[in-house]
Amino acid sequence: MKRTTDPYDIAEGVPSVEVFRRLRVDAGLSDKASEAVALALPNTWYGVVLRHEGEPIGMGRVIGDGGTAFQIVDICVHPAHQGRGLGRRIMAALTEELERRAPATAYVSLIADGPARFLYEKFGFADTAGHGSIGMYRVMKGS
Length: 143
Hints:
globular; five-stranded mixed sheet; alpha+beta; Aminopeptidase
């Protein structure tokens, strides 16, 4: 019987600025300025990069203050690799680390785009609207 190996590998870390930007755009997320990404990546509390045969094709990060508040951001998988449970693998790695290191009273949030909400619900995330609070956001605009 021939044994098949998993061509996907997930490892702790963050991609380079260029790879970060490419992964976001490839997955249909908004691009971010190189300068902003260069400031952001070193401040990642925990991140993972998903590779297919060595090539980065997905990522996810947790940002936050390390104690009371965390946010899951930048979850993406290249469209050619979607539908294979890879987003679930990224989320599992991030939530396992949160469960291992984040204090029990920490608040973990995320913004779900479209059908991704169904994946996040499987990891215990729920809508905030209607439960006494509502998620809000603001995008900073340059001058």
